[in-house]
């Protein structure tokens, strides 16, 4: 964690970074005129309303109100504190930060501490696996075909068969128990005290794409139940946001331009060991929009490998439409019945798995084949059931050519007229969007007068206007205190000879509502240069008039109070003030 960093270093980082590059590392952006746009990563939407300005180095969502500069994006998306965001962008830009100092754990940010605790925990379990006490676990891994170098690559560990092994180890490092509980590593006892969550299990660290440990999965080495347990959700680990093994797979995914998705840890580890490196695991959960968008950073092509049983078929039919909504290409490879990828590779070799992957069916063909097996095509009801299950998937395609081709193919396969299929397609209502975890509650409108926001936009775009406006307006002329604060700060910076750039101003003021105001103002429709002077003049006149009306109203109220109290001296002064105000108007 960084110590105190002065504004000059922060400004240097913001001056070197390109917010488009930062955000593109997380979500795909499409050019939209001078800006870039995409679906907002902080709330679910079908029409893109998340805008990124390369010129102003800010982003803003017109749907939920999220906005800010590169620091704000990282803090919100990665759930990190400001110091962590500074460190990350400093590394990215090559800016040297002040020498780090030791930080009291009580002061260090929670996110920083949790990452550190997970790293210490992972090392403890890994050391125990490779110690004499870990022989049973090593024998189990050998039995499952996992080599020692693979175990080290994935940093596998073994949790001792004790109630407090991890507690004792981390107690020596002065780690607070409440933080260990927040990390999901220990559980409270009913009578007081704590005990380790993971005991007598192979431990699989779960990494993000930057190889930071988010949490853990753990598997027994005998027949005891439950077979698997996982970390609960924590401030840094949210289920459905990451994919197991993607940190090791991402370069191969980009190189091969497709990714293989399996369900479990070992289903990922064993094929990876045998040379299939563009593979990751969903950890047995239904795929989420966030995972699909994570994959889109590296490829638009996905091959899902499912166990060849009813459960595997059901999983494929249930969750893969999410890739269609994200305009990705998805295929399905089904293994023979009784096999998962781990067992299949150990029995048949990696080339056999690659052959099955190479013959994967597109989602439409796979889904139709399964439905034809389940329903009787000789009966009208069987055809109706197939149509009712596959048309909602077809409706999710955004490309009308694909919709037309799949309707045509479906018509031929089940011998139903295309017109009937189109009639049924038109009856399907929009489904509720898939829920995913990184959701931002929609912010309330700031309810700021458009005139004030327009003036802020113009001042941010043309520094010369700030000095001109400063000669004719005071911050107090702005009705809303937030706009007054922004204007006052810009006036001060100009007086000091500084350039109040949009992304720097957001950081300088450091207020969420003010960041929203600045971003909303910045993304107002463009104003032609020839109209700017007139628009500025009109805005100033409106604000002056509004300001005078408010002052007049205030003075009238004070006059009434002076009359009621019999304050003749005050009454005369107030009447003089209101007469002067009327002359000004």
Description:
The protein is α+β, with helices and mostly antiparallel strands. It has four domains: 7-93, Zinc finger, CHC2-typedomain (DNA Primase, Chain A), CATH 3.90.580; 110-230, DNA primase DNAg catalytic core, N-terminal domain, CATH 3.90.980.10; 248-439, 3-Layer(aba) Sandwich (Dna Topoisomerase Vi A Subunit, Chain: A, domain 2), CATH 3.40.1360.10; 450-584, DNAb Helicase, Chain A (Orthogonal Bundle), CATH 1.10.860.10. The chain is 52% helix and 11% strand. It contains 27 helices and 16 strands. A five-stranded antiparallel β-sheet has the order 1-2-3-4-5, sandwiched between helices. It has a five-stranded mixed β-sheet with strand order 13-12-14-15-16, with helices on both faces. The protein has a four-stranded antiparallel β-sheet with strand order 6-9-10-11, covered by helices on one side. Helix 11 (265-273) links the parallel strand 12 and strand 13. Helix 17 packs antiparallel against helix 18 and helix 21 (450-461) crosses helix 26. Mean pLDDT is 85; it is low at 101-108 and 432-441.
Main features:
single chain, 585 residues, alpha+beta, DNA primase DNAg catalytic core, N-terminal domain, Dna Topoisomerase Vi A Subunit, Chain: A, domain 2, 5-stranded antiparallel β-sheet, 16 strands
SSE order and pairing:
Blueprint (H helix, E strand, L loop, with lengths): L6 H10 L2 H6 L5 E3 L2 E4 L11 E4 L4 E4 L5 E2 L1 H8 L4 H12 L16 H20 L5 H9 L4 H6 L3 E3 L5 H7 L5 H6 L3 E3 L5 E3 L4 E7 L5 E8 L7 E3 L15 H11 L2 E4 L2 H9 L5 E3 L7 H8 L4 E6 L3 H10 L1 H5 L3 E6 L6 H8 L1 H9 L2 E2 H12 L5 H16 L4 H15 L3 H10 L22 H12 L1 H10 L8 H15 L6 H8 L2 H11 L6 H37 L2 H17 L1
Parallel strand pairs: 12-13, 12-14, 14-15
Antiparallel strand pairs: 1-2, 2-3, 3-4, 4-5, 6-9, 7-8, 9-10, 10-11, 15-16
